């Protein structure tokens, strides 16, 4: 059940001061390496919409990680900020419900809350997360550093295993750092210890300041935790700068509602796990160390740390580590070399040889190539006919006294190019290397699609020899034109060239077959000017029509003429132009132009319309005068009757009915009674 990727894992070195010693460290990336992922979420009010998506995250996240490894556990924690001014409103009502709107319900603010220990139970993860509610604080920066520090140092509470540890940090704002706590009267520096109570709350948040970037980076490195910062666009740059200061960390752009967080985590994990960083720590004083990285894509010399990128599963990389003692040690010392992000490490114990043990003389010692030399003071003193550290070489066959010099291409290169060992002045190369100085590595050629020379050639001394039909540094360029031809057999539609079996379109063209052209003129636009000048004698070419349109012939047809082709309809100075074009093999263009419809004389229509309007107006006037005349006559008759009535004596009575209290006139009547 134990996965071993690093070899060796223990080493004992005896060094003489000033004499460098080189040893190899191999790393072979295993498939399905276990993963622990702790999801640390900002629950400030601006992350309200994100929380709803995270509540549904558990199963999808576990499925995505199980595509990488069968052994995966996930946990959950959240953070806001310190619960004192100026970070959080300290009014009692706001501490109980910090939401901006009183009608909304938010949980009380807190610095960091450990919600769920690492588990492989998806149902429990979703249940715990679904119980979370949003909170709020005052200022924009959040207390994420406090949360990361507690997640890194509270190993038992979080449940970290000795596997790949990922800390996913999601937020939409920046972070407080050491010194910001003084604004709230918090001056004690962060002590880097676990301070979680039984409820999982960070209980020293209002006592200890935020950690510094250096302190947090050191703690994450010591705990072997790889942070993944999933942040929104507005805060992407600060976190990218922060990532440069934290070893083995990654940054991804989070959508405003965290809908892409699973893809972001998957991409970041693949990037981190395929990059192998070999670093030493606790190196004793008085030692120099350097790394030569022998990666699948090349060699890097004299680094302060070993690094290989793009390492694939089951691919092995080698780091040659050179250690030099500059002084004598009084006692044995030890240090470790570890690939960042992995639990394995190489334990190295070092002692210095500052004295000669000359009492161990052995004549014709078996140690010295079966008795070809005497063993004295820790070294072989060879016979006159032998050479080499173990007297393994025949002197008569060696020209140079310094055997290693014959195993170097030049004074600046490594012995056997770092890919083999020098035996009796000749290089014995590793499996993948060959050449007199092991200078050729058949695995160091360029790759395409993860394969050396793209699988379309063979590697010869770092240079790809491509199979027939392929070219390019990585044999990634196919010379075939099968994918460049249209169904009619035209390469790239005649609007581009075929390179590596892909169309490279001319300027202005796009598409798989260069069939799209946004800036190009349509056939209607191309032949419009010739059609206009030939038919109407107008347009841009009216003065040079014969010369400019010498290869163009026109054919006039009735406006009722129809054909199966699409007609061009263009508005010109001479009127509406309708035509269709036909290109002949000799280059001649036949334009079939519809005659414009016969012009209708508008004068009769105009006269008719005006006459109609005048006639209707006159009729309306006549009707009006008739109605007025009838009314006048009726009024005259009524007045005559009234005059006849008023010639007799009349008794006129007026009476008014009034409410006594309200003094309101209820009725008014006038009665005229004739008196006989």
TrEMBL record:
Residues 524-601 form the Integrin beta subunit tail domain. The chain crosses the membrane at residues 603-624. It is found in: Cell membrane. Belongs to the integrin beta chain family. Pfam families: EGF_2 (PF07974), EGF_integrin (PF23105), Integrin_beta (PF00362). Gene3D superfamilies: Cytochrome c1, transmembrane anchor, C-terminal, Laminin, ntegrin, alpha v. Chain A, domain 3, von Willebrand factor, type A domain. GO terms for biological process: cell adhesion mediated by integrin; cell-cell adhesion; cell-matrix adhesion; integrin-mediated signaling pathway; leukocyte migration. The lineage of its organism: Eukaryota, Metazoa, Chordata, Craniata, Vertebrata. It comes from Protopterus dolloi. This is Integrin beta. PANTHER family: INTEGRIN BETA SUBUNIT, INTEGRIN BETA-7.
């Amino acid at each position: 059940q134990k996965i071993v990727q690093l070899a060796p894992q223990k080493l004992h070195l005896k060094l003489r001061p000033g004499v460098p010693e080189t040893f190899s460290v191999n790393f072979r990336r295993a498939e399905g390496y276990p993963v622990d992922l702790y999801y640390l979420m900002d629950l400030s009010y601006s992350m309200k919409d994100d929380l709803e998506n995270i509540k549904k995250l558990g199963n999808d996240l576990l499925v995505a990680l199980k595509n990488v490894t069968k052994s995966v556990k996930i946990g959950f924690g959240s953070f806001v900020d310190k619960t004192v001014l100026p970070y959080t409103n300290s009014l009692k009502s706001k501490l109980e419900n910090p939401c901006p709107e009183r009608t909304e319900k938010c949980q009380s603010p807190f610095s960091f809350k450990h919600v769920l220990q690492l588990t492989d139970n998806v149902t429990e993860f979703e249940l715990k997360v679904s119980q979370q509610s949003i909170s709020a604080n005052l200022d924009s920066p959040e207390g994420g550093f406090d949360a990361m520090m507690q997640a890194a140092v509270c190993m038992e509470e979080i449940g970290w295993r000795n596997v790949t540890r990922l800390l996913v940090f999601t937020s939409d704002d920046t972070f407080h750092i050491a010194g910001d706590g003084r604004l709230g009267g918090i001056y004690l520096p962060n002590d880097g210890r676990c301070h979680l109570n039984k409820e999982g709350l960070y209980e020293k948040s209002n006592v200890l300041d935020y950690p510094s970037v250096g302190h947090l980076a050191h703690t994450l490195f010591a705990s072997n935790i790889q942070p993944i910062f999933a942040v929104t666009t507005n805060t992407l740059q600060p976190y990218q700068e922060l990532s440069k200061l934290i070893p083995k960390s990654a940054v991804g752009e989070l959508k405003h509602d965290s809908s892409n967080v699973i893809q972001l985590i998957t991409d970041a994990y693949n990037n981190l796990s395929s990059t192998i960083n070999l670093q030493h720590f606790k190196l004793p004083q008085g030692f120099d160390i350097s790394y030569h990285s022998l990666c699948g894509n090349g060699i890097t010399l004299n680094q302060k740390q070993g690094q290989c990128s793009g390492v694939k599963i089951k691919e092995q990389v080698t780091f040659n580590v050179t250690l030099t003692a500059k002084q004598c040690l009084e006692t044995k010392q030890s240090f470790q070399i570890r690939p960042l992000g992995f639990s394995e490490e190489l334990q190295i114990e070092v002692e210095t040889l500052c004295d000669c043990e000359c009492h161990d003389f052995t004549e014709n010692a078996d140690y010295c190539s079966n008795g070809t030399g005497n063993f004295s003071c820790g070294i072989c003193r060879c016979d006159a006919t032998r050479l080499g550290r173990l007297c393994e070489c025949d002197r008569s066959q060696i020209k140079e006294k310094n055997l290693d010099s014959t195993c170097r291409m030049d004074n600046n290169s490594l012995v056997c190019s770092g890919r083999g060992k020098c035996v009796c002045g000749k290089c014995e190369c590793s499996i993948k290397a060959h050449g007199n100085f092991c200078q050729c590595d058949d695995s160091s050629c360029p790759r395409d699609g993860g394969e050396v020379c793209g699988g379309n050639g063979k590697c010869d001394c770092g240079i790809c020899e491509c199979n027939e039909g392929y070219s390019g540094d990585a044999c990634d360029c196919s010379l075939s034109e099968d994918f460049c031809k249209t169904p009619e057999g035209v390469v790239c539609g005649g609007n581009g060239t075929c390179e590596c079996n892909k169309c490279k379109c001319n300027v202005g063209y796009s598409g798989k077959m260069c069939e799209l052209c946004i800036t190009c003129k349509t056939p209607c636009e191309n032949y419009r000017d010739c059609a206009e000048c030939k038919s109407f004698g107008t347009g841009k070419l009216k003065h040079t029509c014969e010369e400019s349109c010498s290869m163009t012939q026109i054919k006039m047809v009735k406006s009722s003429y129809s054909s199966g082709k699409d007609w061009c309809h263009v508005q010109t100075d001479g009127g509406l132009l309708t035509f269709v074009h036909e290109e002949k093999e000799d280059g001649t263009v036949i334009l079939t132009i519809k005659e414009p419809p016969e012009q209708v004389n508008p004068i009769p229509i105009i006269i008719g319309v005006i006459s109609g309007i005048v006639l209707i107006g006159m009729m309306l006037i006549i009707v009006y005068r008739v109605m007025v005349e009838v009314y006048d006559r009726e009024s005259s008759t009524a007045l005559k009757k009234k005059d006849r009535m008023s010639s007799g004596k009349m008794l006129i009575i007026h009476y008014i009915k009034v409410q006594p209290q309200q003094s309101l006139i209820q009725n008014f009547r006038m009665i005229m009674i004739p008196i006989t």
